[in-house]
Structures are given as C-alpha cells and as structure tokens.
Amino acid sequence: MTRPIAALNFLLTLAVTFLGLLAITFLIGRVVPIDPVLAVVGDRASTETYEAARLQMGLDDPLIVQFVRYVWQVVQGDLGMSVSTGRAVSEDLARVFPATLEMATLGIIIGVGFGVPMGVFAAARQGKWVDQLIRVIGLAGYAIPAFWLGLVGLVIFYANLRWVGGPGRIDLFLDGMVEPRSGLLLIDSVIGRNWEAFRSALSHIILPATILGFFALAYIARMTRSFMLEQLSQEYITTARVKGVPERLILWRHAFRPIWMQLITVIGLSYAGLLEGSVMIETVFSWPGIGNYLTTALLNADMNAVLGATLVIGAVFVGINKGSDALYRLLDPRARA
Amino acid sequence: MSLLSVKNLRVTFPSDHGPVEVVRGLSFDLGRERLGIVGESGSGKSMTGRAIMGLIATPGQVTADVLTFDGVDLRDLPETALRKLRGARMSMILQDPKFSLNPVIRIGPQIEEAMAVHGALTKRQRRARMLDALTAVRIDDPARVARLYPHEVSGGMGQRVMIAMMVVMEPALMIADEPTSALDVSVRGQVLDILDDLVKRRGMGLMLISHDLNMVSRWCDRILVMFQGAIVEEISAGQLYKAQHPYTRGLVASLPRIDESRDRLPVLDRTAL
Fold this sequence. Notes:
The structure holds two protein chains of two kinds. Chain A is built from 16 helices and no strands.
C-alpha cells in the first residue's frame, strides 16, 4: 500500500472503532435501570412534567435517531450535564483527566525506565540469580493488588518515614495556587516558577506513580525478557559473535534493536492500562483523577458522567493502541515493506 | 607450519542420560587450502566448526590436546582475546542468509560493523572497504545494496552479502558451514566461484562443511569424512570413488547418477559399520 492510502485506511478504521465505542456507551445508557428523565425532573414530578421532559429529551424518537443525535452531540464535545457536580461533564473531564494523565505518564516512564533494562539483563543472565530475582518481581507485579500496595506504601513512606506527601495532588495550603495551563501540576508549577508547589506536587505524585510504575514494570520486564530470549537464540546473534562483536553490543544492538519496535506496542498497552486502571490507586490516594470521578459518578447514579468518563477512557485506549500500532509499522523496516 | 592444528578435539553436552559426546577425538591440520568436511546430519561437522571458533556456549564443553590457530593456542584463551581473533583473523559463513543477517540493520552497516569492532579504520575507509567487499562478491550496484535491509534482497544475494561481511577483514581462516545448502542450484555455482576466487587471491585456509559429496569432491583439495563425531576417512581431491571405508562407500553408493537408471537408491547399511 502506498503511504496516503495506508494513512486513509488507518483513519477510516480509527473512525469505525470510535463509532463502535460510541454505540457501546449509547447502549449502556439505554440498558441500565436508571431513568434519565427521573434523574432530571426528580421522583416527585407530576406525570405531565415527566412526559414533557421525556419528549423534550427526544426519548420517544426511534433508537437510531437518538443514536445519531448522541454521536452528533459527542462530536461537538457535548457530553451532557453531570447531576452530581452540576457542571457540564466535558468540563469536569477536562479538569480530572490531566490528573490521571500526569500520574500514569510518570508511572509509565518509571515502568519503561526500569522494566526494559531489567528484562534485557534477565535475558542476558538467563537462569542466574538476577534472572530469578527479576522474575519474582514480575510475578509480584501480577499478584499483589494495587490498593494493598498503595496502603502499605502510605503507611511506610507517608505515615512513618514522612518521605512523601500524603493523599491528594498537592499540600492543601498550596491547592489552587498554581495557575492551570496544561492541567499537569508538575509542568504548570515549573512554568509558573513556583518551586514550592513543584516540590509539594512531586512529593504527592511520586508514591502513587511509582506503584503504577511497578505494575507497568512487571509486565514490561517480563515481555522484554521473553522477546530478548527469542532474539538471542537467533542465527544472526551467532553471526555477530563470529564478527567478534562484544557481548554488550550483541545485547543492545543485535538483540534489542529488533525488539524495541515490538516493545512500543507493549508499552502502549500498559500505558493505556495505567490510564484506565488507576481507579484503585486514585481511590487509595484520594487522587482527583478520572478513576475517582468515575467511581463517584457510579455511586451517585450520575449516568452522563459515567458515560462521558467511559467514553474518554475508551477513546484513550483505542487511540494509544492504534497509535502504537501505527508507530510500529512506521519504524520496523520489515513491517514497512 | 600449518594454519590450524587440531588434535583430539572433543565437544560434550550434558543430557539427562549423562554427557553426550558430539565430536569425539578429531585430529587434522589445515594449511592454506580448501578442506572439505562431509558427513550426514548430526555427524558433528558443524560442531567442529563452532568449537574452533569458540562458539560452543555453556553447558557445552570443548577439550583438545592441541588446538592451535596460526601459532596461538585457542584452548582456554580468554573471551576478549578470542573475540579479537574472531571476525578479524578467523571467520565463519553461516548457512542461511534469511536467518543469519540481522533483519533490522541495513546491509552496509552490518558489513562495516566487522571492521568497526576491530578498530583501526576511519569511517570513510570502512565504507570504501565495505563497497569493495560487495564488489568482490560480484554485486553490481554496491552503494544501492548497502542501503537495503536483508529482507529486501534474494537468498543468493544475501549469501554473497554474508561472504562479503566475513571476508572484509581478510581473515586467514574461513569456515564455511553449509554455505550453499539454502540456495538454488543455479546460485550455488556462483557462490562457490566467489569463495574459490577469494581463497586463491587472498591465500585463505578454507574449511567447507557440507553434506554434498559431489560438490565437495569436485571443489576441495582434501576431504575428511565424518561419522558419529569422528573422522572415518581422509580422501584427496577427486579420489572420492576410491574411498575405502564402508561408511564412505555407502554414502557414495547412495548418490544418484545421471547416466544410469535405478528404481531404488541403495541406502546406507548401518549394520555393517
């Protein structure tokens, strides 16, 4: 396929996937036993008021008409009003999503920064104690629940050692002192040259981000290790040895280079996982992110907020997946052909 | 003095049923000549080549009474010293270019790497020599081919790239481990011609490992026939049909010939060995 056609093809599949995502959130909204009209008019409204509201909301139209209207609204950025916060859902999401994004991004940086070298070294020393240790760490990342690690982390590093800040994104007296630009506190405080706020935000984010990073690390290290083992048994590794290439270069240039493009997909997947799967960590750390927002909305039967948040999480997941897939195709000479 | 001297070479691998010896007491000398090593699959011929190159990884074990290359004792030579020899003074051509070339590195840099890791040359000199090496293996458009990835060239060209990569440092010893068995018959002759030319012009000692009796007997100065990890017979060029050992004779007898009609090819009678 030529480049423009491939790009068009890519955009088309992206559009279809998003449409499917919209169909799912739309259907959830119609299937759940929460009456959207009651949520607006209250349960003491008269039958006439109820009927009028129902007509006004277009709920007597055929389902397909309602769906098209829903898609049109979403495309315009209208996700409806949140019953519990009284603000537009899109406005709420624009506020809470950066908090999640900041934590997950720091988490994935930690996960990649430690996970990839760990996987490479485990593969290079297959069967040795380093390998065993890294495998145990990987297994722990699978087996330990996030909320438990979060609680233990808080008890040790916050309550006892006082090394890190506690729950929330920043110390209370600094809350609102940083002018929001990107919504990412670390970046905004640097832009505003507010170093006190930066320190506080960093001390708050470091523990939850490290815990998220640990889960990403476990997965990334395991995948890196198995990719590397596969590469190291290849014949072209023998070729490199025949050429007299030193072991360090064999590891990084000959074995790692063919797999780092595959790793992009793995990293993308775990990044998406951190963005959507931070509900537990956000609850434990009272992190005002999308996971927390979604949980609150669910408990309050705030349907618009639930659907809006679901949509954003789904869109991010699809976006990162498709993005890393495209990046892989672009970077790997074998897939490019 | 011979280039390579091997006495009582043994390669052992541990297994569930105790250690298995895949090469059992091999002895031979190699000068600046073409030495063929033939034998069936599993006879230990590839292991011999890899043992000389120091490529048998743990848990495999290599022992020998003598293992000398150009006056250097290869036994217990530290890995760093061995690495300085590999690729520079001794080299090996592997079987299938589809698997033996790194798929994500362009051909040019792969050839230049052999020079880069052994130092000495500048970047520009390396590039010039890389292009020369590609020309030497009869690639017409070396600058273009150097920019390609291995999957973008044919098997025959891939193997010529492999040869270029291994001769670019002008090694004294070249081990060719089934260099033509992954190639079409029509390309085999070309690749052998190129090797032959390099041996003659650069005075290399060449060890050709193969299971192709005909090819080896036509092409090599001397042939060692291996069976179950040991040399059973040594034959001079063109004397294959005078072979004495029952195994060699069995092998020769089972070759199809174009000037006769047989409904069945005789198979090796292993009970007689």
